[in-house]
Amino acid sequence: xxxxxxxxxxxxxxxxxxxxxxxxxxxxxxxxxxxxxxxxxxxxxxxxxxxxxxxxxxxxxxxxxxxxxxxxxxxxxxxxxxxxxxxxxxxxxxxxxxxxxxxxxxxxxxxxxxxxxxxxxxxxxxxxxxxxxxxxxxxxxxxxxxxxxxxxxxxxxxxxxxxxxxxxxxxxxxxxxxxxxxxxxxxxxxxxxxxxxxxxxxxxxxxxxxxxxxxxxxxxxxxxxxxxxxxxxxxxxxxxxxxxxxxxxxxxxxxxxxxxxxxxxxxxxxxxxxxxxxxxxxxxxxxxxxxxxxxxxxxxxxxxxxxxxxxxxxxxxxxxxxxxxxxxxxxxxxxxxxxxxxxxxxxxxxxxxxxxxxxxxxxxxxxxxxxxxxxxxxxxxxxxxxxxxxxxxxxxxxxxxxxxxxxxxxxxxxxxxxxxxxxxxxxxxxxxxxxxxxxxxxxxxxxxxxxxxxxxxxxxxxxxxxxxxxxxxxxxx
Length: 477
Hints:
Layout: E1 5-11, H1 28-35, E2 38-44, H2 50-59, H3 63-66, H4 89-95, E3 99-104, E4 121-123, E5 135-141, E6 149-155, H5 163-181, E7 185-190, E8 198-201, H6 202-205, H7 228-235, H8 242-272, E9 279-285, H9 305-308, E10 312-315, E11 324-331, H10 332-343, H11 358-361, E12 371-375, E13 384-389, E14 392-397, E15 403-406, H12 424-440, H13 444-447, E16 471-472, E17 475-476
Parallel strand pairs: 1-7, 1-9, 2-11, 3-4, 3-7, 6-8
Antiparallel strand pairs: 2-10, 5-6, 9-10, 12-13, 13-14, 14-15, 16-17
Helix pairs in contact: 1-8, 2-10, 5-8
């Protein structure tokens, strides 16, 4: 049986809302691809920053298992160290007879020696040429004592002078190389776009000249009854006016459109070469962006859906299930096992690997599943766990009060229900489900946090999964 080709299109920091039909973000090529694809409406990242989520995609495991709990460039290696002994989806594709290529942002681990993971040819952020651009307009942020940072910008050079154009070109060259040999290919194309600073070609920014940019419904949220750190982070953007926010949103949409232009080029190439029908295309983001929600941008500790809910699209070979929208929950660490299953490749080896969601895709399983995220707080180390089930979202904050949102009636997360008596039983039930997953996945640091001052959750983890005793030096208890 002929193996289907596989292409992963990975965006950095693209929120799910930009692909909605109701969005003013111009994504004609991606929306055309969506009509040929399965769209997953409830895909969530397992972590709000790049390296942990990317390593989970690669290994099919949670961050506390693969060890990359923060971004490679933000903390010393002892605080985020990738476990190279783990199996990877790239190695699984290689072992299954694929030529594996990777172009663009890697950010999974620090060596950038991708051949260790079964990847034949690659160019990552340390290999890609530097692209000089002439910024003619920008929005900057300069808080007292901090260096001035560009939030967004517009430059004179065209789309064909961008890094995004370059890596898509490289991907098509490698596909052509495999085609000539008659080998199936697995290509990863990973753009920096639309990550901040949102810097875009003027020719694309001008596409939005007649587009009215609106602020998100939660823009004026005071963040009452939410952790104080969210309000402190909100203040970091206080010098920006509403017009600055609108200009930044326009640049962000333009950056998404730049990705869309490159996706259109790739799809045209696949159709011209006859490869489109036999190619499984997976389009996703590592995480989203607040982009004005709750009067903030970018991403960090605030666990809102704009950051955690991600676009996930799968175009199956032969365009099977074209136009389907599936509402069950799917996690970042389950995407790799699902794609390996869909292509008939070997499974990932190891303990506590994410489930293949093929039974849900095929309708054999119909329950809503769940989503789960681990956050380790970036440089300031704010520990957080998030659990989604049946449109309810529970946030365990080890540093402040917990959060609970009923997303069915409060999709913009304006009301924290954690102290609501009406929702008390639901909060305890979600917390208990969170603990079961924590214990099952071997997150013993959290599950064993039973020292009296650490007993801060609304309900404890309950019976241990392991039979560990407790001792202090030579004293057994």
